[in-house]
Amino acid sequence: MLPTPDLSHLKRQDYEHIYEPAEDTFLFLDAFEDEALFLKELQPKISLEIGSGSGCVTAFVAKILGESNCLKFCTDINPRATRATKRTAKHNQVSVEIIETHLISGLLPRLQGQFDLIYFNPPYVLTPSEEVGSNSVEAAWAGGIDGREVIDELLPYIKCLLSSIGVFYMVVINENKPDEIRNIMRQDGFDSSIVKTRLAGREKLFILKFVRATL
Ligand SMILES: C[S@@+](CC[C@H](N)C(=O)[O-])C[C@H]1O[C@@H](n2cnc3c(N)ncnc32)[C@H](O)[C@@H]1O
């Protein structure tokens, strides 16, 4: 069992401004642990976490990939989160390129088709649309209608970003309508599966995995 990354450098005051790792984060870690062999065999050359928050997931995935030559990118819209990710990477001796940006802005067209691994624990909570789009801690959860507004903005870009062998993982809850998301991605040429699911309080969490459909 791989240890959870060391986040002892992040204090209560930090979590007033960035997402504190919670059930969804830990389910994501568990899913990546289950996928470790697959990921090692995939040997990703370039990876991307969208919305890295504390940096916990990226540090964990980096440990799975070990000493491989994977260039790891993270983005977050919240400047405090990008700083926290940087500190977490340093604290856990992993190297990551961190970009403060909206979703994947600035990565296309230069990195089109280059990512072998993309993962996102998005803001998925159902909220009024007006709450979506901040760059503070609310960005961690505010997902708008059906909790899908940020998710739906990203989905069309996945086919442009992923390489031919690329894989995309995403956290969702039942209210996000996972089957509908899987259908949208199917139309973009992706097969999908549920790699992990867990009931956390009233939330039913899923980890979805997407790979390009084989002809
Ligand atoms: C649920 S938190 C997940 C944080 C961390 N990855 C984890 O699993 O603990 C969602 C993260 O996405 C970021 N985020 C929200 N909207 C974003 C956007 N449009 N572009 C980039 N990051 C965004 C938030 O700032 C937050 O850090």
UniProtKB/TrEMBL annotation:
Superkingdom assignment: Eukaryota
Record has Repeat as a keyword: no
Protein name stated in the entry: S-adenosyl-L-methionine-dependent methyltransferase
Domain Methyltransferase small: 37-125
Protein family: Belongs to the eukaryotic/archaeal PrmC-related family.
MF (Gene Ontology): nucleic acid binding; protein methyltransferase activity; S-adenosylmethionine-dependent methyltransferase activity
GO biological process: methylation; regulation of translation; ribosomal large subunit biogenesis
One Pfam family from the record: MTS
InterPro entries assigned: DNA_methylase_N6_adenine_CS, Euk-Arch_PrmC-MTase, PrmC-related, SAM-dependent_MTases_sf, Small_mtfrase_dom
Record's GO cellular component terms: eRF1 methyltransferase complex; large ribosomal subunit; nucleus
Keywords: Methyltransferase, Nucleus, S-adenosyl-L-methionine, Transferase
Compartments where located: Nucleus
